[in-house]
Amino acid sequence: MSTIKSSATRLVGRVATAIDHRVPWYRLPTFPGILMLIAMRARLRQENLHDTGPISDVVPEIPETVGDRHLTARTVTGHYNSLEEPMMGSVGCRFGRNVPIESTWPETDSHLMSPNPRVVSRKLLTREVFQPATTLNVLAAAWLQFEVHDWFSHPKPDWETCHHVNLSQGDDWHENPMRLPRSLPEPSWSDSTKTPTTWVTEDSHWWDGSQIYGSTHGMAEALRAHEDGKLILDADGLPPKELDASLDVTGTAGNFWVGLGLLHSLFMKEHNAICDMLRRNHAGWGDDQLYDKARLINAALMAKIHTVEWTPGIIAHPTTVRGMRTAWYGLVGEKARRKYGRIGSGELLSGIPGSKKKLFGVPYSLTEEFGAVYRMHPLLPDDYTFRSVTDDALLADHTFQELNLTHARERAGEYGMANSLYSFGIAHPGAITLHNYPRFLQRLERPDGTILDLGALDVLRIRERGVARYNDFRRNLHMRPVASFEELTPNPAWQAELREVYDNDLENVDLMIGLYAEQPPPGFGFSDTAFRVFALMAPRRLNSDRFLTDDYRPEVYTAEGLQWIDDSTMTSVLLRHHPTLEPALRNVGNAFAPWQRVRA
Q: How far apart are CA 45 and CA 347, in angstroms?
């Protein structure tokens, strides 16, 4: 029976693909469009989920458990999310792939430099005039980085000892040739393995809020107050200042800035508010039990906000807006699910949360392809204006460099969280397109003193990790490759620049460049090509997590915990902790859309 079902699913998926090649899903009415996306996603689930090898080869030991706490709580490292495969998705596990592993060989050294990533960055990415994304606010840009820090983190190479790529160029870079560090392969890989390189994560693959709770036991403990389950916040609303000296600024921690600080502060406060709610309902609970339940609830709330608010905000086509809400609430919709509860154990009618866990025949992991299409740095502006939430008065103008790790606490003290959130809420991020890459990222001066062109590094990382170039990437996702530069982009100036940089070779166009050049569907902030990976991988993050499927139930979360998730939105979280934002958020349907300017 399963073979018949699999064959039927594959046939339906191929028929949907054939139709999509003639009439793209986004040109269909909403309901037929959703059916098309469901059929295409089914094919992607069958053909585009690939394991990169036994987990035990990378992480040989399963950490010991103390009692049965791991049965109903997330662990710091992501172990025991799957009780059958305790290491699945944990810190140190390999990234998976969305193409067969034999198709993921890194590019050869000669092709790795074709064309020079620095040339690609300078000629195709450089922001000449800021191009705003007028349907979003800057909080949406900060949110993406906040969430990515929960999902993707490759081990950092040591600048002095790692292998470098030398990029000879004729510009005014401070060194010639420019050096960019190579990625570190997973520990057991070597040239003699006769298999493509794989990479591992320094965070868990699960949607578990690790960006605020930590991915190591030391960091997790340092963030805890060890009283009433709560986290520690300084008077300025940021994580404890004492931790600053212990942060490794050469890694992800070095990317901290005011935008991330606002969201770290907000959801650490939300954790503590959840602890207060739980303590009122469960007076006998201890510190660990309150902490564990609050983390479960907070992480699920962040997943809900990303699914039903952030994503529909950035891909605001009627079909995808309905589709993302269906992923969380099912076809019956939010009102019916909240009134009557779940209908059956499947995801179609009542949504993924609380449905049966599904792995789709492949151990769960995030993928290199998923990480590649999440390179959306153009969302970040170079310049920021701070205003008062009370009367919209101008407080200050700053460049990004004045908001980074070394200045985040200073800015938080100067303007306060409410004014900063308001300032981000009324400002636009950048459009994800060519010639809109932040200037400060093309000469990124990191806290450890290294200087990078992150645009060139983005191009290099995708090439060296064996992710296909643009047209091959589309073929891998069962899309029709573009036949000309004119089909890739309607912009004549960009067509000429792409021809020049890629020597008139359409097949050589980099994935990221193609994604930025491509004309998006109506209402979309990014390309349809990138969306195909999201359509596959975004619901998989929910489907494969037992805490969002089998164990998304009152016995694990508490009834009031599930009610908290149901009742909360990004707007309600903002107003719970910063009620002075109410005039700016009044009548704003999505907190990631532009807020209202307050009046004096």
A: 15
E strands, 14-148, in order: none
* Token output for 84: 């059958």
What is the rounded average pLDDT for all residues in the chain? 91
The rounded radius of gyration (Å) of the Cα atoms in the chain is 23
Judged by phi (left if over 0) then psi (alpha if -120 to 50, else beta), residue 80 lies in left
Query: By C-alpha distance, which of 69, 67, 90 is closest to 79?
Result: 90
Does some domain include residue 38? no
DSSP 126: B
Q: Is 599 exposed, middle or buried (0-12, 13-18, 19+ CB in 10 A)?
A: exposed
CA distance 424 to 383: 11
What's the structural domain count of the chain? Answer: 1
**What band does 5 get if pLDDT is binned at 50, 70 and 90?**
low
DSSP 599: -
Domain region containing 259: 48-152+168-278+286-585
- 547-593, pLDDT tens digit by residue? 999 999 999 999 999 999 999 999 999 999 999 999 999 999 999 99
- Residue spans of beta strands (DSSP E) within 115-248: 164-167, 178-181
What pairs with residue 398 in β-bridges? Answer: 384
CA distance 108 to 463: 9
Marked catalytic residue, from 26, 80, 364, 374: 374
* CB within 8 Å of 589: residues ≥ 6 apart: none
pLDDT tens digits, 388-444: 999 999 999 999 999 987 888 888 889 999 999 999 999 999 999 999 999 999 998
Burial label, 56 (beta-carbon count in 10 A; 0-12, 13-18, 19+): exposed
For the segment 192-219, the average pLDDT, to the nearest whole number, is 87
In this prediction, residue 11 has a pLDDT band, given cuts at 50, 70 and 90, of confident
Position 177 scores a pLDDT of 84
Residue 248 belongs to domain with CATH number: 1.10.640.10
Give catalytic status of residue 374 as yes or no: yes
Contact 219, 102 (CB under 8 A): no
Domain assignment of residue 2, yes or no? no
> For residue 564, what is the enclosing H or E element?
helix 559-567
The answer to whether 420 and 590 are in contact (CB under 8 A) is no
309: which DSSP letter? I
Cβ(482)–Cβ(474) under 8 Å?
A: yes
Is the residue at 87 inside a domain? yes
Which DSSP state fits 306? I
Q: How far apart are CA 205 and CA 395, in angstroms?
A: 40
Yes or no: say if 546 and 81 are a contact pair by the CB < 8 Å rule: yes
Q: Are the CB atoms for 205 and 257 separated by under 8 Å? A: no
Q: Is residue 424 one of the residues assigned to a domain?
A: yes
The mean pLDDT value for 284-306 works out to 97
Distance spanning both ends of the chain, measured CA to CA = 68
